[in-house]
Amino acid sequence: MNNIDNRKYVIALIFTLIPIIFIVRLFFMQVVDDKWKERAAQISENKVVTYPARGIVYDRNNKKLISNEVYYDIRVIPGQTDNPDSVSFAKLLDISLEEYTEQMNKARDYSMRKPSDLVKQIPPDEFADIAPELYKYPGFYEVERTLRIYPRPVAAHVLGYMAEVDSNDIKRDPYYASGDIIGKSGIEKSYEELLRGKKGVKYYLQDAIGLETGRYEDGNYDTLAEQGKNITLTIDGDLQEYGEKLMQNKRGAIVAIEPATGEILTMISSPSYDPNLLVGRRLGKNWGELTEDTLKPLYNRATQARYNPGSTFKLLMALIAMQEGVIDSTASFPCTKDLVGCHNHPTARGVSDGVKMSCNPYFYYLTRKIIQQGKYKSHFKDAAYGLDIWADYLYSFGLDKGLNVDFPAVTSGRIPNTDFYNNEFPSKSRPYGEYAWAFSTIYSNSIGQGEVELTPLELANVACVMANRGHFYYPHFIKEIEDGDIPEIYRQRQDSKVEPKYFGPVIDGMWRVVHEAGGTASRARVDSLDICGKTGTAENFKVYGGKRRQLKDHSIFIAFAPRNNPKIAISVYIENSGFGGTWAAPIASLLIEKYITGEIKDKAKEQRILEADLMPIEIMNYKKNR
């Protein structure tokens, strides 16, 4: 009897505990453990992200540089297809049979009842041929998406391109998910967070096998996508287009800046490419072809290439020497060609003459006075003392230390200091103490050769400092932001270490370079404009087969105009084209004239530049020099 009673109590206890366990478990699943709620939502709700239109990009004259256009994705629900003719359908979609088969297999593996992408980013002109035939293929349908379009095929390096995010993008910013598009270079990358807008979300109910059955809560929890902010750039689209025409069949870079604001008016790297090539489903193929091009059209020479500045660097040597008090504006030095080579000209009787005639020995002597100031008995220690003074002046012009430009992948030039040369010229014994070099080791820097290197962007900023008589504003591309302000850093004046009073004789020399007989840039003259400029010719070497070969020199010119109240400052760098006054100077003058007056009067000068093919044939030079 006791056993029967015991079993009765056990059975009662079991029946009592089971509901309690279920109640506790349900409470835990529904209230405590979020993953069960998420799983339930996955079964009953389908979250669909909606993407906003990206912000429009305008030039300084409110002309569109980047806009949006509807592209199309073809999607498939495998369970709704009826075994179409794969060959004909692949041909209609303009993909290979292998690619079609691969994508269909992926779609089936994912789900027979849910949609998968088959072909993405079909441009409207190609979709126009597909659309009339698509109804013949059940289970396949189109989905619209917005992608970029470039109304004018210019400024590819400035504007940049977009592509799908990678794992690093997703890790860096949780806003992105696989398949999203992001700015990968240029302005598209710099102002990605402004341009991208904000995603929206729509919730759909679905059944156990994933088919939609309606809107969740009648759409009350949906959020609308917010379009990206429109921005206005400092770029002058017309000037950019004109400059790119002038640079056809030439390799090099141009940067033009408004001195009073630091606004970049044009930035050209040549060779370039049509930015529309890197949009849509042909992006991968076109990217591959551009990458393999030996002329490197994807490489932005304006911000990434470092060159010797040549004789344009002499302007800074004169300013530093006067500020340091080691010369005055009337200083004269003999043209001693056994020190550094020079062309034939009268003796320079002052800084203005030295700049006008670009006398190499003049700037050799002048720079030696900066570096070897006689502060120490040892020439080596004295040179180290003077070199760091010299370098600090150059840093104050925005060189080497960065210009804070609102642009990705910007390279800084190189201003060598004592640390650099101590590493460059090591000495085991160092009989003279810490240093094993002096001015006699590094004198080539005085004429813009040697170890000093600048980018075309930095050189344009030097032209701005000259135009402003000692100060500059950080170069930038942003002019206006919809419902926002440009960063304060671009409104802040940056002063060099050279006082304005020392700029007079240097600028006088720059004016004479262009306008007087014996000046080195007569081809830059425009009768109606007071252009002030300085030519440069940089030696160019390349190693072939382990041997250092000299190739044709690079042509360089910097300028600003007008002389008073300047509107534009510019640097032009043409690779392998010879003397600075021959090619770089007239190109700069055409852009200056076009920007200030809106027209070109000297059509012969313009035609000469447009027709010139200055592309280097390096292999031919190598064979000839062997």
Task: Describe this structure as you would to a colleague.
The chain folds into 3 domains: 101 residues, Penicillin-binding protein 2a (Domain 2) (Alpha-Beta Complex); 77 residues, Penicillin-binding protein 2a (Domain 2), CATH 3.90.1310.10; 376 residues, Beta-lactamase, CATH 3.40.710.10. Helix 3 packs across helix 4, helix 13 packs across helix 15 and helix 14 packs parallel to helix 20. Strands 2, 3, 4, 5, 10 and 14 form a 6-stranded mixed beta sheet that branches. A 5-stranded antiparallel beta sheet has the order 12-11-18-17-16, with helices on both faces. The protein contains 23 helices and 18 strands. With 626 residues, the protein is α+β, with helices and mostly antiparallel strands. The chain is elongated, with a radius of gyration of 33 Å.
Total count of domains: 3
Say which CATH homologous superfamily of the largest domain is assigned.
DD-peptidase/beta-lactamase superfamily
Reported for the largest beta sheet, the result is: 6 strands, mixed
Helix content: 25-40%
Report the C-alpha radius of gyration, rounded: 33 Å
CATH topology group of the largest domain: Beta-lactamase
Note poorly predicted spans.
35-43, 619-626
* Class from helix and strand fractions: alpha+beta
Could you provide a short overview of the structure?
By secondary structure, the protein is α+β, with helices and mostly antiparallel strands.
Topology, pairings included?
Layout: H1 2-32, H2 34-44, E1 45-50, E2 57-58, E3 64-76, H3 86-93, H4 97-110, E4 116-122, H5 124-130, E5 140-149, H6 156-159, E6 162-164, H7 167-172, E7 181-183, H8 186-190, H9 192-195, E8 200-206, E9 212-215, E10 231-233, H10 237-246, E11 252-258, E12 263-270, H11 283-292, H12 301-304, H13 314-324, H14 351-357, H15 360-371, H16 379-395, H17 418-424, H18 439-442, H19 456-467, E13 471-473, E14 478-481, E15 493-495, H20 503-515, E16 532-544, E17 547-561, E18 568-574, H21 584-597, H22 603-611, H23 618-625
Parallel strand pairs: 2-10
Antiparallel strand pairs: 1-8, 2-3, 3-4, 3-5, 6-7, 8-9, 10-14, 11-12, 11-18, 13-15, 16-17, 17-18
Helix pairs in contact: 1-2, 3-4, 10-21, 13-15, 14-20
